[in-house]
């Protein structure tokens, strides 16, 4: 007998478990459309050129794994302090907030944003959840139905109550805007409303600019706090500004808001775990207080964040030449995904004799497509066709090549029947 007998085997993660099943499949036709990671047309992982250049710069400068702190008031005393401060790399925090809001945004100029470096998008969300749990006891987080699978885990583990608002309408494979507005209205005053800044995961369906304004209206009416999850800035449309438009329009109203950021997709820094948590306040004083509490929450969880990814981002976003090169590479990645989306749509239309309207695929944006396949049909995709995907019918177009579109179209049409 062991004292661990009471610990049952945990189920595999519904998203990350897909890759494990994929690895075990020996069929040559197999296709991994489960995890949302960018692949080249040859279906290989891709390290951005600007990331390599930033890393070369770091090598040339002979940067060590510690951090130099300059204390200006003590005769410019330089000290090696081993670790980053709890809030992360200052140069990173500066550029990441500027990238999100725009450098000349009044919220930046007036120092109303509390920014701390986080352990990518997930860790930033988790830190914010801890802040909600501590300072807004009982407040509920409203999340879209459906949403990225990890959102529920994050709020559950932080002991933050959540409920869902309607988002996806299976009849139109589009947005249930009326339902969304009604549910946000019906929530208790002062709730947090989790919104995907762009390229909604898993549906690929975003509100229009006019719909965003109406969403902001009800949130203000109900005194809710918007909480944006921005995991795809620049990666969805190819434009950093267009993908941040929703967040910026809320900020322009003078609203207090939360924004979690991730560099996993747009800079391809997945395993570096680099992102940030931003809280927009109504004064610099409030921002300083919020930041101090975010640091206090982070300290016993992980002490301080890792430096490598933060330096890469600071070098790329903070350097005008690399920044422009990054934008070009992002357009390339977003463009490849759009081409694959178009080819998949064309293949489905050409092969499907049932008269089904596939145009919903072209209306979705970002790396995912929500196919409308149910769980049994998604299982058929995997078991019969060796196409690995999540059971909610989501496929990652970033893991698809033009060459495989026809095969995938055959699999989808067959699995629908
Ligand atoms: N939010 C959403 C909506 C996502 O799709 C993802 C990535 N799958 C994340 C957050 C977090 O990813 P990461 O922790 O790698 O930044």
UniProtKB/TrEMBL annotation:
* Keyword list, A-Z: Aminotransferase, Pyridoxal phosphate, Transferase
Domain Aminotransferase class I/classII large, chain residue ranges per copy: 30-412
Q: Name one GO biological process term.
A: amino acid metabolic process
Q: E.C. number, please?
A: 2.6.1.1
One Pfam family name from the record?
Aminotran_1_2
Is Transferase one of the keywords? yes
Keyword Transferase in record: yes
What is a single molecular function from GO for this protein?
A: pyridoxal phosphate binding
Q: InterPro entries of this UniProt entry?
A: Aminotransferase_I/II_large (IPR004839), Asp_trans (IPR000796), NHTrfase_class1_PyrdxlP-BS (IPR004838), PyrdxlP-dep_Trfase (IPR015424), PyrdxlP-dep_Trfase_major (IPR015421), PyrdxlP-dep_Trfase_small (IPR015422)
Sorted alphabetically, which PANTHER family does this protein's record hold?
ASPARTATE AMINOTRANSFERASE (PTHR11879), ASPARTATE AMINOTRANSFERASE, CYTOPLASMIC (PTHR11879:SF46)
The miscellaneous remark of the record is:
In eukaryotes there are cytoplasmic, mitochondrial and chloroplastic isozymes.
Quote the function comment for this protein: Important for the metabolism of amino acids and Krebs-cycle related organic acids. In plants, it is involved in nitrogen metabolism and in aspects of carbon and energy metabolism.
Protein name in the entry = Aspartate aminotransferase
């Amino acid at each position: 007998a062991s004292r661990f007998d009471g610990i049952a085997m945990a189920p595999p993660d519904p998203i990350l478990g897909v890759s494990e099943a994929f690895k075990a499949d020996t069929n040559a036709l197999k296709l991994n459309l489960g995890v949302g990671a960018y692949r080249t047309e040859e279906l290989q992982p891709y390290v951005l050129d600007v990331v390599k250049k930033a890393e070369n710069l770091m090598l040339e400068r002979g940067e060590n794994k510690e951090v130099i702190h300059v204390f200006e008031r003590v005769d410019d005393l330089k000290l090696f302090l081993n670790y980053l401060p709890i809030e992360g790399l200052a140069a990173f925090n500066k550029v990441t907030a500027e990238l999100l809001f725009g450098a000349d945004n009044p919220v930046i100029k007036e120092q109303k944003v509390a920014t701390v470096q986080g352990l990518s998008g997930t860790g930033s969300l988790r830190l914010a959840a801890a802040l909600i749990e501590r300072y807004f006891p009982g407040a509920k987080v409203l999340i879209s139905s459906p949403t990225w699978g990890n959102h529920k885990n994050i709020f559950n583990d932080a002991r933050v109550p959540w409920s869902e608002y309607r988002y996806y309408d299976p009849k139109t494979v589009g947005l249930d805007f009326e339902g969304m507005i009604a549910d946000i209205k019906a929530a208790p005053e002062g709730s947090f409303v989790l919104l995907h800044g762009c390229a909604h995961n898993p549906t690929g369906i975003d509100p229009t600019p006019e719909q965003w304004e109406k969403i902001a209206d009800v949130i203000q009416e109900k005194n809710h706090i918007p909480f944006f999850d921005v995991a795809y800035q620049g990666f969805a449309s190819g434009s950093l500004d267009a993908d941040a438009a929703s967040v910026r329009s809320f900020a322009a109203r003078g609203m207090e808001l939360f924004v979690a950021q991730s560099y996993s997709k747009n800079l391809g820094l997945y395993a570096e775990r680099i992102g940030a948590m931003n809280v927009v306040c109504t004064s610099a004083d409030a921002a300083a207080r919020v930041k101090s509490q975010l640091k206090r929450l982070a300290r016993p969880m992980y002490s301080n964040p890792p430096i490598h990814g933060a330096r890469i981002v600071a070098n790329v976003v903070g350097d005008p030449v690399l920044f422009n090169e990054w934008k070009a590479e992002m357009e390339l990645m977003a463009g490849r995904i759009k081409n694959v989306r178009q080819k998949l749509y064309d293949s489905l239309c050409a092969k499907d004799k049932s008269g089904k309207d596939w145009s919903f695929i072209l209306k979705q944006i970002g790396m995912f497509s929500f196919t409308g396949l149910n769980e049994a049909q998604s299982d058929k995709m995997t078991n019969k066709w060796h196409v690995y995907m999540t059971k909610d019918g989501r496929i990652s177009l970033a893991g698809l090549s033009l060459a495989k579109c026809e095969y995938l179209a055959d699999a989808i049409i067959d699995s629908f029947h």
